[in-house]
Amino acid sequence: MSRLHILRYPDARLHKIAAPVEEVNESIRTLVADMAETMYAAPGVGLAATQVDVHKRVIVIDASETRDKLLTLINPEILAASGVADCEEGCLSVPGIYEKIARAERITVRALGVDGRTFTVEAEGLRAVCIQHEMDHLKGRVFVEYLSRLKQTRIRAKLRKQQRQSA
Ligand code: NI
Fold first, then answer.
1. Is residue 163 scored above 90 in pLDDT?
2. Are 129 and 87 in contact (CB under 8 A)?
3. Dihedral angle computed from the Cα positions of residues 19, 23, 24 and 28, in that order, rounded to the nearest 10 degrees
4. Which of 9, 23, 100, 152 is the most buried (most CB within 10 A)?
5. Residue 51 DSSP symbol
6. Which of 14, 33, 122 is nearest to 72 (CA)?
7. How much of the chain, in percent, has pLDDT values that exceed 70?
8. What pLDDT, on the 0 to 100 scale, is given for residue 1?
């Protein structure tokens, strides 16, 4: 396993649209293992392949306190959504920024697992929010894009400054 480099907003590659995985093979399983290692090391509660510059529909999530409930979703689709949650969200690609975003509170998702089999999962609260956040990445959408233009401009300026200082 190896840790992958996480793209930082604003980076145009974060806006690429991920393609469906055609076959869950060894290279996809290696990608999943590397993404999980990268997410746990960061540490973060979720990571989309888009964030490591791989434009395939793969996400990993672990919103548990014990950090031992890895959920891998390949080609995820939301089948049902209800309620409204507005959790404060953060993102490994947007370090140091936390903002409330309105999301569905409960979702049902269908996806393929690392074994290539289709399964459905019901999620609520933080786990549901996290899945929606990561699925947005696959569509090229970063959570700060739900905010006002003024806030987005401020966030971009702040992150560019951080990057200059660390360069
Ligand atoms: Ni994110």
1. no
2. yes
3. -50
4. 9
5. G
6. 33
7. 100
8. 76
